[in-house]
């Protein structure tokens, strides 16, 4: 059956082609009265072309925008979303690296099963899988904003679930002592204090100066992203506090006292170049870079801990030492489950300092 005038057509092209059918619309006529066509797409079957033509006539899209590749779209996203936190950009870049097979594909040709494959075949744990899922969801949302597509396939994806909190393994006292020992002469050279610990492991040079960050996480309860986002302006050595945190309302801009055992670490880092407390070559360290350094440190120490287990260790040690539950929640950035504690209990800075110093090891 002939299509209505102006509806468009699907024609088969000559030759051996992977997508032999051209979907086109008449957009005008030349001086000889011959039609001028605009190609909407090339497809594998006539049926696929007719469906696409019907979709276009129902809700026309910008044909030029439809030629945008995933790589083009990601560049646009980074430009338009420059105000997003650096940690978000780092996460998106890490996830993007797992989608190389689709860099040059037109975004409109990337379907849900393509996206799901990048997650399933990433060979990574739940955190990275979830980051890839978030990446596709954000790309889909951005494509909708630009009127490139009418669907966000990113909302259909699945990833591995997080490891249950109970399976987290806190650092043991012996392991914490070993991390202190790994500081070795580093303690003496950076803090000017007595060389109390001896080096017991061979740590790669690039990771060696980051052993102090493991201790910082163990004695503050900060997340990786929170630590790497800390600016020196948020450190008050006079009051002995650090203000930082993110993720939840209770966790944002929380005040954590500087434990006496890591004060020299904080002071030494404050003397280095850059605006961030834990900087790399004077600039903020990317989270994926830090994870590689962490892996090298753990490998040298013959340990298998994740950075987040420092946070679990911090809470566990406070609890074992008998710290006030409300003080623990405040330093962890957790919202108390007890309404009375949440509304009526106001802990002073001195109480928080007393609570954190209960951890003596």
How helix-rich are the residues, as a percent range? 40-55%
Q: Label the overall shape.
A: elongated
Q: What is the CATH class name of the largest domain? A: Mainly Alpha
Helical stretch tally: 16
* Overall number of strands: 8
The number of distinct structural domains comes to: 3
Question: What is the average of the pLDDT values?
Answer: 84
The CATH architecture classification of the largest domain is: Orthogonal Bundle
In whole angstroms, the N-to-C terminal distance is 83 Å
H and E order: EEEHHHHHHHHHHEEEHEEHHHHH
Protein architecture, described:
The protein is mostly helical and 361 residues long. It has 3 domains: 9-60, no CATH class; 67-156, Orthogonal Bundle (DNA polymerase, domain 1); 166-356, Orthogonal Bundle (hpI Integrase, Chain A). Helix content is 44%, strand content 10%. It has a 3-stranded antiparallel β-sheet with strand order 1-2-3. Residues 185-200 and 337-345 have low confidence and may be disordered.
């Amino acid at each position: 059956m002939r299509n209505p005038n102006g509806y468009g057509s699907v024609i088969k092209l000559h030759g051996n082609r992977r997508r032999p059918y051209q979907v086109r619309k008449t957009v005008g006529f030349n001086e000889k009265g011959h039609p001028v066509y605009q190609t909407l797409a090339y497809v594998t079957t006539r049926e696929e072309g007719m469906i696409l033509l019907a979709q276009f006539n129902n809700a026309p899209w910008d044909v030029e925008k439809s030629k945008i590749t995933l790589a083009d779209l990601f560049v646009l996203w980074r430009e338009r979303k420059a105000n997003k936190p650096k940690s978000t950009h780092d996460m998106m870049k890490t996830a993007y690296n797992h989608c190389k097979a689709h860099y040059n594909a037109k975004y409109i040709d990337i379907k849900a099963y393509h996206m799901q494959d990048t997650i399933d075949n990433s060979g990574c744990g739940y955190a990275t899988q979830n980051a890839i899922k978030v990446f596709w969801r954000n790309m889909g949302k951005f494509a909708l904003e630009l009127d490139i597509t009418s669907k966000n396939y990113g909302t259909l994806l699945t990833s591995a679930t997080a490891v249950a909190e109970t399976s987290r393994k806190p650092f043991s006292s012996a392991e914490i002592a070993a991390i202190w020992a790994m500081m070795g002469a580093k303690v003496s050279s950076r803090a000017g204090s007595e060389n109390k610990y001896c080096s017991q492991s061979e740590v790669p040079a690039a990771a060696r100066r980051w052993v102090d960050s493991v201790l910082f996480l163990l004695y503050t309860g900060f997340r990786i992203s929170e630590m790497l986002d800390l600016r020196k302006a948020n450190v008050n050595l006079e009051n002995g506090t650090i203000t930082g945190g993110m993720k939840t309302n209770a966790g944002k801009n929380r005040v954590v006292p500087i434990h006496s055992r890591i004060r020299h670490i904080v002071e030494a880092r404050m003397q280095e170049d850059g605006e961030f407390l834990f900087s790399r070559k004077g600039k903020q360290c990317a989270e994926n870079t830090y994870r590689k350094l962490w892996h090298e440190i753990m490998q040298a120490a013959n340990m298998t801990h994740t950075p987040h287990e420092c946070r679990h260790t911090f809470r566990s040690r406070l609890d074992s030492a008998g710290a006030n539950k409300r003080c623990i929640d405040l330093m962890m950035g957790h919202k108390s489950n007890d309404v009375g504690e949440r509304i009526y209990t106001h802990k002073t800075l001195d109480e928080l300092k007393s609570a954190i110093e209960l951890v003596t090891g």
